[in-house]
Write a structure and sequence with these properties.
7 helices, about 30% helix, five-stranded antiparallel sheet, OB fold (Dihydrolipoamide Acetyltransferase, E2P), 15 strands, single chain, five-stranded parallel sheet, about 240 residues
Amino acid sequence: MNKIKALIVDDEYLALDLLEEFISRLPDVELVGRAKNPLEAQEIMNINEVDLLFLDIQMPVLSGINFTKTLVHQPLIIFTTAYSEHALEAFDLNAIDYLLKPFTFERFLQAVNKAKMQLKLKSPTQNSTTPTTDAKSFITVKSDGKMVRIRLNEITYIESLKEYVIIHGSFGKHIVLERLKNMESLLPDEHFLRVHKSFLVAIDKVDALYGNQLEIGDKRIPISREKKKEVVDRIF
């Protein structure tokens, strides 16, 4: 994979300097710019390819949250902020991670590694992540300290557990540091369906519908009220 092109947006020079110093330690990440506010950031993004955005939330003129909502082509975003109360909204915007200031280099590196994994999963040219013959036949995730290749046709369902997901299948299960919404975006929607805020199922693995629950083997999975009609239409 080519170098990841990163942009830092923060209204504090100390925060900009710290992130620039952290990025300089990573040989596979290239800093394409730093901006004091979202308007400067947009100018940089208009003329540079940006894969990864380190974005402060509390800024004058336009907050990082509101700036994200204006982006048509959204890069991967890691929010950096001193305020924890924005975490839920940040993840609703598909943020890769949420760094609470002050954060260490180790915590920064953890966030960057999550971004690298996402970029690899999205890239059809990386043999380590996707096969050359069928880019949708498997995904690669980090579980229990190692990279694991999971064939999509072996997955039965995926369960959310706060910032983690548990991928269940014929292989047993893998616990992965990832948000369910991000996992959903990586899987082909013709084969997988979000049936509840905490569950994503493989359509062809569903055995039965029982009230407001799906049966997959001996597991019963709840269906959200607003998802019931879609579940019935697509699966039954």
